[in-house]
Amino acid sequence: MKSLVKIGIAGLFIFMSSFTYAEEKKSGDMAADIGTVGIPVIAGSIALYKEDYDGFWMFAKGAAYTLVATQALKYTVKEERPNGEDNLSFPSGHSSSAFQGASYLQFRYGWEYGLPAYIGAGLVGYSRVENEHHYWRDVIAGAVLATTIQYLVTDKYIDSNQVMIVPVINQDQVGIAASFSF
After folding, report:
1. Residue 155's CB: how many other CB atoms inside 10 A?
2. Where does the record locate the signal sequence feature (predicted)?
3. SS3 readout for 58-121
4. How far is the C-alpha of 74 from the C-alpha of 82, rounded, in Å?
5. How does DSSP classify residue 7?
6. Tens-digit pLDDT profile for residues 121-160
7. 143 vs 97: CA distance, rounded Å
8. How far is residue 64's CA from residue 104's CA, in Å, rounded to a whole number?
9. With CB atoms 3.0 to 4.6 Å apart as the test, which of 8, 65, 134, 171 could cross-link to 128 if both were Cys?
């Protein structure tokens, strides 16, 4: 039953992620589309794999808030795209989605998870500018918006199997103390 719930939740986020963009596709956009959906799906899946349900809900809140804020800004600002397709250029929804997943991974689990995701998110943003769907300011705004929102809703993950080693220095002793839990 537990795995069925995980699959259902992951499916829901894949479905929700598909609404982060609705513009006409050109060749060369597939990598950006994959990163836009893939980075957040991977981020949520890592939380579920670790059975970090508190973290998963932080991810879900960040995704929902980012989606709402991005769409609200698009329909408020109404900036024309470089290719003239429509007036929903600012901020980049692809970038905000990809950077939301990357930011969650970095804030929750550290740079070893976040750095590869940030590289992928950066490539998503580059692709959006290169294919004339966005200006750089749109991509940067999407990245800053998503990163800020995720920062506000994410607590650092504390692994229960962690070892802590600290120096001990006082008037009578010099040494180290170790603490671990399992």
Report:
1. 10
2. 1-22
3. HHHHHHHHHHHHHHHHHHHHCCCCCCCCCCCCCCCHHHHHHHHHHHHHHHHHCHHHHHHHHHHH
4. 15
5. H
6. 999 999 999 999 999 999 999 999 999 999 999 988 876 5
7. 8
8. 13
9. 134
Cβ–Cβ under 8 Å, residues 47 and 57: no
Q: What CA–CA distance (Å, rounded) separates 114 from 104?
A: 8
Q: Given this model, what pLDDT does residue 21 score?
A: 45
pLDDT at 78 over 50: yes
**90: amino acid identity, one letter:** F
Structure tokens that stand for 102 in this block: 């990357």
Place of tokens 């993950």: 157
With a pLDDT cut of 70, the percent of the chain lying above it is: 75
Task: Tell me how far apart the alpha carbons of residues 7 and 60 are, in angstroms, rounded to a whole number.
Answer: 15
Threshold 0.85, pTM exceeds? no
Residue 57 to residue 59: CA distance in whole angstroms: 5
Q: Please answer whether residues 104 and 154 qualify as being in contact, where contact means their C-beta atoms are separated by less than 8 angstroms.
A: yes
Question: Among 104, 39, 24, 38, which Cα is nearest to 65's?
Answer: 104
Give the tokens for residue 38. 């893939």
CA distance 55 to 110: 13
| In the chain, where the domains are located | 2-180
DSSP 23: S
The amino acid at 7 = I
